[in-house]
Amino acid sequence: MKLIYENSLACAGDIKEFVLEGQAKISFPDGRMQLENAMDAGNGQKANYVLWCPEDFPSDVLVAWEFLPVREPGLCILFFGARGKNGEDIFDPRLAERTGEYPQYHHGDINAFHVSYFRRKEPDERAFHTCNLRKSYGFHLVAQGGDPIPDADEVREPYRLAVRKEKGLVTFSVNELEVFRFEDDGETYGPLLGGGKIGFRQLAPLVAEYGNLKVYEI
Asked: Which domain holds residue 151?
């Protein structure tokens, strides 16, 4: 593998080219990017947001980052392989505006994979912790595995997360422990997805920190 992108996410300058959809408070305590909703969680989906890395990445990649939950409830998502449904850049002005509300991302103008992790929002998610992989357009749940990350008040240091996408195979791991894998046949849930952008999504009122983002070409 070849390292093609590296970002420590340690200060405001590291994300000056990132694109925020929705409203968020972004700070950098302890040299890590901390995300928190700027709008009251009582506003529902309108209080959620997505922070996109501006780079386009190839189809076969390993995306690695560090994650530290600070305060629950909420959940986190990483979008990857994101492009317009007709191959456009996701920031193409011909695509509909996105403001952080989830349906805009799974039934809007873009295709993407999205892995949801640290799911502590609804009562059933808090009672039974899983990580989910969905493929869009659509809301196709294609893989699921147990979430090994404990609740925020028990976390002592960041966890190492990684998504690997190689041809039709997608895997997700936490501290090098594989959580799930998905073999995409390119038919059941639509054509294989290629390269594109990655983005971090958070649901209010979760507070979490991110660091050491790295992308490797496979």
From this structure: 8-53+66-155+184-209
Q: How many other CB atoms are found less than 10 A from the CB of residue 134?
A: 21
Q: Which residues of 47-82 are buried (b: 16+ CB within 10 A; e: fewer)?
A: bbbbbbbeeebeebbbbbbbbbbbebbbbbbbbbbb
What are 190's strand-pairing partners? 188
The enclosing domain of 120 has a CATH number of 2.60.120.200
The answer to whether the beta carbons of residues 216 and 41 sit under 8 Å apart is: no
pLDDT tens by residue, 81-114: 999 999 999 999 999 999 999 999 999 999 999 9
User: What are 139-161's pLDDT values in tens digits?
Assistant: 999 999 999 999 999 999 999 99
Compute the distance between CA of residue 18 and CA of residue 172 in angstroms, rounded to an integer: 24
* Overall pTM surpassing 0.70 (yes/no): yes
Residues 192, 162: Cα–Cα separation, whole Å:
20
